[in-house]
From TrEMBL:
This is Oxidoreductase. Gene3D superfamilies: NAD(P)-binding Rossmann-like Domain.
């Protein structure tokens, strides 16, 4: 049976890898991207919808029976304010979730973060936890949440803090065994591959994958 994918946010580290892998996957015959700007890829299976995400609810897009992937996300540095950050990491994914519910999407798969918790004292982790809870409350037929640890890969931009952390983590990764495996850095392409593998399971309910479990799926 052929599958349809809708991807919100296909220009980030995970999103780009996800689009590339979906296009090469014979089980997916249609991939629709919801983006702020066109990406330099053309393919018979690919449709790009460039939108203002503030108007997400009003776009004409068919989500029925689709695997809906959400890789939207920003940083405080880019967003400038906590309000803008929450718009991208909470409001837009929640609107997408409500659209998926209303239109009868097969499932919603979203990337949050390791340590996501609505009670966290860290703003970033708290918002990630809040969107997880809000999406659970929608009672989607299938909701899959992915919590990667430090992401490795070419983001197309320089982030000094992440670069230094990634370099240091290479020294300690071999020591992260057993229950500490979820703290190992993970490549964006591995997360994307894990998301697609999870999507194909079609198992109902809410499923949360920590970073080591994403790597195992991949």
């Amino acid at each position: 049976m052929k599958r349809r994918a809708v991807v919100a946010g296909g220009t980030g580290l995970i999103g780009k890898a996800l689009v590339k892998q979906l296009l090469s996957d014979p089980q997916y015959n249609s991939i629709t991207l919801i983006l702020r700007r066109f990406i330099g890829i053309t393919d018979p299976k690919l449709e790009q919808k460039v939108i203002d995400f503030d108007l997400l609810e009003s776009i004409d897009i068919d989500l029925k029976d689709a695997d809906v992937f959400c890789t939207l996300g920003t940083t405080i540095k880019k967003a400038k304010t906590q309000e803008n950050f929450k718009k991208v990491d909470y409001h837009y994914p929640l609107v997408l979730g409500k659209m998926a519910k209303k239109q009868g999407a097969k499932q919603l798969l979203i990337v949050t973060a390791m340590g996501a918790s609505s009670t966290s004292s860290i703003f970033y982790n708290r918002v990630k936890g809040e969107i997880e809870e809000a999406l659970r409350e929608l009672n989607l037929p299938i909701l899959k949440i992915f919590r990667p640890s430090l992401l490795l890969g070419d983001r197309g931009e320089f982030r000094m803090g992440e670069g230094m952390t990634a370099a240091l983590s290479g020294l300690f990764t071999p020591l992260l065994l057993g229950p500490l495996r979820k703290y190992r850095p993970i490549k964006g392409e591995v997360v994307a591959r894990g998301m697609i593998a999870a999507a194909k399971k079609d198992d109902h309910g809410v499923h949360t994958y920590e970073s080591n479990e994403i790597a195992e799926l991949s």
